[in-house]
Design a protein that fits this description.
It is a single chain. The protein is α/β, with parallel strands linked by helices. 33% of the residues lie in helices and 27% in strands. It has two domains: 4-179 and 298-384, 3-Layer(aba) Sandwich (Aminopeptidase), CATH 3.40.630; 183-296, Alpha-Beta Plaits (2-Layer Sandwich), CATH 3.30.70.360. The chain has ten helices and 16 strands. Strand 3 (67-77), helix 3 and strand 4 form a beta-alpha-beta unit. Helix 2 (31-44) packs parallel to helix 3, helix 3 crosses helix 10 (368-384) and helix 5 runs antiparallel to helix 7 (263-283).
């Protein structure tokens, strides 16, 4: 794609990115974000068909060609994070404690730019669909969209997405076939005994020992579980009793994140974690319960789709690197790639860029152009050749 094709829209996309950043919203609350995207597309990239309120605040815009062909979907995320912004800047989030610290504002801007190009030059055949998905950060949005009856009318044959990655040269394209991001799930263990006066702890049933045993054992489970690839258990929170010096504790709570390269390995890890909690609780004569939060399926890239990205990146003149291991983090794009062939690629955000989910992070706007070029060249290869 010639540089002149993008120069006149990059300024608009940067302004959109900053506006989205100012109005960051948490997962499941993306009402203002939905409105900003819809207004921008209606003004600058009117689509032949618009689907609203998809899986919640989701939006889809369809750009059909004149001839029969496949439906190729491109996806970006709407939601921000519950993180206080540390860096002073003019486009600082207007909502204290809520900010775009994963770069979804930039991802949305890239996708909006693709809409502008598709409006100017619709595909020759098939259909390009731009999907703006809510609630990615909690792992709920993709499933809600897939289960929404309106999704049947979109029915993609291929699906693509990108994610910016600090720590790698800006604009560098990172690719891998097969496992690309890990499956993960949040585990919450509740222990219940009996609280009593702190002067007579022997009269109660304290969960303290069981809580410590569970916290010691959970991180050791990957080494003790037969898995075919990477796995990890990370303790993220624990709470014992109340902040009362006169009361011996009667309740405890432990939170941990389980992750694995493959979905089936995550299930094995979950079974071992449940057994560990049960055994420790029963040894301490405690009632116990386990529940699960924020499930993310493993992101598995289709080999042919990855090759399409590689060719599109090469056509864009971008540096390409092939990964040997999947990323440890999770992304609910895996739900889409589990029902239809597709692939996600990583876009380097700069070797000195602040890490994702850190208070100092801000999406580098220089990434809008290379991300847009790769998406456009995917359209060109699949829907114009």
């Amino acid at each position: 794609m010639a540089k002149a094709r993008t120069d006149d829209i990059l300024g608009l996309l940067a302004a959109l990115r900053r506006n989205l950043h100012r109005h960051a919203e948490l997962s499941g609350q993306e009402v203002d974000t939905q409105a900003l995207i819809r207004e921008f597309i209606l003004r600058h990239a009117p689509a032949a068909e618009t689907v609203t309120d998809l899986g919640g605040a989701g939006l889809a815009f369809c750009y059909p060609g004149r001839l029969e062909g496949p439906t190729v979907m491109f996806r970006a995320e709407l939601d921000g994070l519950p993180i206080h912004e540390a860096t002073p800047m003019q486009h600082r989030s207007l909502k204290p404690g809520v900010s775009h610290k994963c770069g979804h504002d930039g991802h949305m801007s890239i996708l909006a730019g693709l809409g502008m190009l598709l409006h100017r030059q619709p595909p020759r055949r098939g259909r390009a669909v731009l999907l703006f998905q809510p609630a990615e950060e909690t792992g709920e949005g993709a499933l809600r969209i897939i289960h929404d009856p309106k999704f049947e009318g979109l029915s993609p044959d291929l699906v693509f997405a990108l994610h910016n990655i600090p720590g790698h040269r800006a604009g560098k394209i990172l690719l891998k076939s097969g496992a690309f991001t890990c499956a993960s799930v949040g585990m919450r263990v509740r222990l219940a005994g009996k609280s009593v006066h702190a002067s007579h702890p022997e009269q109660g049933v304290s969960p303290a020992a069981a809580m410590c045993d569970i916290m010691r054992l959970l991180p050791t489970l990957p080494a003790a579980t037969e898995t075919d690839g990477f796995s990890l258990v990370t303790l993220v929170h624990a709470c014992l009793g109340e902040k009362a010096f006169g009361t011996a504790p009667g309740n405890a709570r432990i939170l941990a994140t389980l992750r694995a390269e493959k979905n089936e390995d995550l299930e094995r890890l979950k079974d071992r974690a449940i057994e560990t909690a049960r055994r420790c609780a029963q040894a301490g004569r405690l009632e116990w319960a386990v529940d699960w939060k924020e499930y993310f399926a493993a992101g598995v890239n289709d080999t042919s789709a990855v090759q399409t990205i590689a060719l599109a990146a090469a056509q864009s003149g971008l540096e390409i690197a092939w990964l040997t291991e999947p990323f440890r983090w999770s992304e609910d794009f895996g739900q889409f790639s589990s029902i239809t062939p597709g692939a996600m690629f990583a876009l380097g955000a700069g070797e000195g860029a602040a890490p994702l989910h850190s208070p100092e992070y801000d999406f580098p706007e220089a990434l809008i152009e290379p991300g847009l070029k790769v998406f456009w060249n995917i359209v060109d290869r699949l829907l114009n050749d």
